[in-house]
Design goal:
Largest sheet: 5 strands, mixed
Number of domains: 1
CATH architecture: 3-Layer(aba) Sandwich
CATH topology: Cytidine Deaminase, domain 2
Bound molecules: tetrahydrodeoxyuridine
CATH class: Alpha Beta
Order of helices and strands: HEEHEHEEH
Radius of gyration: 14 Å
Oligomer: single chain
CATH superfamily: Cytidine Deaminase, domain 2
Shape: globular
Number of helices: 4
Strand content: 15-25%
Strand order of the largest sheet: 2-1-3-4-5
Distance between the termini: 38 Å
């Protein structure tokens, strides 16, 4: 990821954050996932009055891309509250790992970025290799 590509992805995450449906937590999150063929799919968190049904922004971006036939991913940018870095929750780390173990995770606080690998955020991950009956 060069600076220009990172900037473009962060911009898409910040733009998606505007659509967050977060009236219960008032915590607005925007994300954007980049495919290896350079397409961007964005997402925002969508909350429910039955709180536990709420969906994180990361899983929305990921499932939008998967549901349009995309299977190879380079990076995801995540933007929470300005001034604060918003790392992905545990459930999102797992689901991102299931589909993109080599993903780069870019956190934006609206001004600066921090870059991690998903493997560093989810060490010793569970994956489908453990499901094997052999
Ligand atoms: N949330 C996300 O969308 N992504 C994260 O990485 C952390 C949390 C959402 C879930 C909920 O709508 C709100 O932020 C507060 O937890």
């Amino acid at each position: 990821m060069d600076e220009k590509e990172t900037g473009r992805l962060v911009e898409a995450a910040l733009k998606a954050r505007r659509f967050a449906k977060a009236k219960y937590s008032n915590f607005h999150v925007g994300t954007a996932i980049l495919t290896t063929d350079n397409q961007i799919f964005s997402g925002c968190n969508v909350e429910s009055s039955s709180y536990s049904l709420s969906i994180c922004a990361e899983r929305i971006a990921l499932t939008k891309a998967l549901s349009e036939g995309k299977t190879d991913f380079k990076a995801i940018a995540i933007a929470g509250r300005d001034g604060v870095f918003c790392p992905p929750c545990g459930a999102c780390r797992q689901m991102l790992y299931d589909y993109a173990p080599d993903l780069i995770v870019i956190l934006s606080d609206g001004r600066r970025t921090r870059v991690y690998s998903l493997k560093e955020l989810l060490p010793h991950a569970f994956d489908d290799s453990q499901l094997s009956t052999k």
